[in-house]
């Protein structure tokens, strides 16, 4: 046993040497001693050696009663690496390396530095397993971590970070990224995820994120409101887009069925989200009086392929159907829907979905957004997202026509606060109209 113990200690020393070597390479790059290519090449080689050493160490400590190594296997059905510790105790992880780190951590080998990055990965894995959250939520959290947490800070051991250290990094991040107050709250969400997990599982004793005052730091954020031209389209812009769509409907390449054009026309009139447009069914058109908006199309990546699926709730309902919302069918909306239905009948296109291809398959959000983006860019617009139609409808039509904010929020499917804070912009190119009103 003494030989095994000494051998394990020697492996730990060699692993830590590789970690130190990687940090030295990063410091040499920062000082201009080596190029980024050389640094990346050497770090990759070092990490390969480190993983090999970790495998040897696991083989020493993760053993059966007869002294042979316990099995570590990949379960393709769950896309997980798994191993059995003892009895009902099992460990699993998304990658072999992360599972090896967990095993060594379990046996108190202390070769895993409890870095922010490492704790974040553990917290994400636990959240994915216990909170039943969507893959989109996990993807968003990873994107936010990568955006707000620098590589250098992510490599810090969480135990070594004090409240003052966290405040200093937050100030540095604010100067570097100049986020909006809303973006700052996303940064706080990442910190909360990391430290709450660390406290719950005993990596640290105190949640220092509680000492980070939102008010104190949000005042240092970019509090300027975007200009109208950066968020919405003018009525003239909308008219240009509508005319361009009707022009493109005559293009030979669409064979008389420019389905994306119909989607854009309805988005302009209703402010429906892209995912809501794609999941809209003819059964949701109620007696040509109301559109029942109560679903959306979501997507997920499984085994390398992206799949799309229907869910019976909208974005604002957050996974629990509350009946959706109803939008009144105006004369313009009725004309769009009638023209589309007539065209589909003429071409013998049958589908339960309003927006479908010639085979009756529903349109995906990605395909719609790609077409919209290309159309808008070809017309010289910097605004290329479907979201602009929601905001333009609110600012150009709802507000000037005196629709109360409670109804504006209800029609668009969000809160009154959201409507006032994020959707209400001054109209563009309306000085002549205002002059006429003032003269009158």
Short overview:
This protein is mainly alpha-helical and 440 residues long.
How would you sum up this structure, described in words?
25% of the residues are buried. The chain has three domains: 111 residues, no CATH class; 112 residues, DNA polymerase, domain 1; 210 residues, Orthogonal Bundle (hpI Integrase, Chain A). Helix 12 runs antiparallel to helix 14. The N terminus is likely disordered. It is mainly alpha-helical. A hairpin with a 2-residue loop joins strand 2 and strand 3. It is 55% helix and 9% strand. The strands form three sheets. Strands 1-2-3 form a three-stranded antiparallel β-sheet, with helices on one face.
Name given to the CATH architecture of the largest domain:
Orthogonal Bundle
**Strand order, biggest sheet?**
1-2-3
Number of domains: 3
CATH superfamily of the largest domain: Intergrase catalytic core
Count of separate DSSP helical elements: 19
**Rg, alpha carbons:** 28 Å
Overall pLDDT metric: 88
In whole angstroms, the N-to-C terminal distance is 98 Å
CATH topology of the largest domain: hpI Integrase, Chain A
CATH class category label of the largest domain: Mainly Alpha
Structural class: mainly alpha
Q: How many strands appear in the DSSP assignment?
A: 8
Strand content bin: 5-15%
How would you summarize the topology of this molecule?
Elements: H1 2-30, H2 36-61, E1 72-75, E2 80-86, E3 89-93, H3 96-106, H4 116-130, H5 135-148, H6 151-154, H7 163-177, H8 181-200, H9 214-218, H10 228-231, H11 235-248, H12 259-270, H13 274-279, E4 285-286, E5 290-293, E6 296-302, E7 305-311, E8 325-328, H14 331-346, H15 365-378, H16 387-398, H17 405-412, H18 416-423, H19 431-439
Antiparallel strand pairs: 1-2, 2-3, 4-5, 5-8, 6-7
């Amino acid at each position: 046993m003494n030989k095994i113990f000494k051998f394990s200690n020697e492996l730990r020393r060699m692993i830590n040497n590789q970690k130190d070597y990687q940090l030295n390479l990063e410091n040499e790059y920062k000082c201009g001693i080596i190029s980024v290519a050389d640094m990346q090449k050497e770090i990759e080689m070092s990490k390969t050696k480190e993983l090999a050493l970790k495998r040897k160490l696991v083989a020493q400590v993760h053993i059966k009663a007869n002294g042979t190594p316990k099995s570590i296997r990949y379960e393709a059905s769950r896309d997980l690496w798994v191993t059995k510790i003892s009895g009902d105790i099992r460990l699993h992880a998304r990658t072999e390396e992360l599972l090896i780190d967990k095993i060594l951590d379990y046996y108190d080998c202390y070769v895993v530095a409890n870095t922010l990055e490492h704790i974040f990965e553990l917290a994400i894995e636990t959240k994915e397993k216990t909170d039943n959250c969507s893959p989109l939520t996990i993807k968003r959290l990873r994107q936010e971590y990568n955006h707000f947490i620098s590589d250098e800070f992510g490599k810090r051991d969480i135990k070594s970070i004090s409240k003052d250290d966290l405040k200093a990094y937050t100030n540095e991040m604010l100067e570097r990224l100049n986020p909006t107050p809303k973006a700052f709250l996303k940064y706080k969400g990442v910190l909360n995820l990391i430290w709450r997990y660390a406290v719950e599982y005993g990596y640290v004793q105190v949640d220092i994120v509680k000492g980070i005052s939102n008010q104190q730091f949000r005042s240092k954020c970019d509090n300027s409101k975007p200009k109208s031209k950066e968020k919405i389209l003018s009525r003239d812009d909308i008219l240009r887009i509508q005319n361009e769509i009707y022009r493109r409907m005559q293009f030979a390449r669409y064979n008389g069925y420019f389905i994306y054009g119909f989607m854009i026309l309805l988005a302009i009139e209703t402010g429906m989200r892209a995912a809501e447009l794609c999941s809209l069914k003819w059964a949701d058109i109620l007696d040509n009086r109301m559109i029942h908006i109560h679903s959306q199309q979501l997507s997920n990546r499984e085994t390398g392929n992206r799949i799309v699926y229907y869910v019976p709730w909208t974005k604002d309902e957050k996974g629990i159907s509350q009946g959706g919302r109803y939008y009144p069918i105006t004369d313009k909306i009725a004309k769009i829907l009638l023209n589309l239905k007539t065209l589909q009948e003429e071409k013998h296109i049958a589908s339960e979905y309003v927006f479908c291809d010639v085979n009756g398959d529903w349109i995906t959000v990605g395909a719609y957004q790609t077409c919209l983006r290309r159309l808008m860019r070809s017309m010289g617009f910097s605004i290329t997202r479907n979201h602009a139609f929601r905001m333009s409808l609110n600012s150009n039509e709802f507000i000037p026509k005196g629709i109360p904010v409670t109804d504006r929020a209800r029609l668009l499917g969000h809160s009154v606060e959201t409507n006032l804070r994020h959707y209400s912009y001054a109209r563009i190119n309306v000085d002549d109209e205002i002059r006429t009103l003032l003269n009158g």
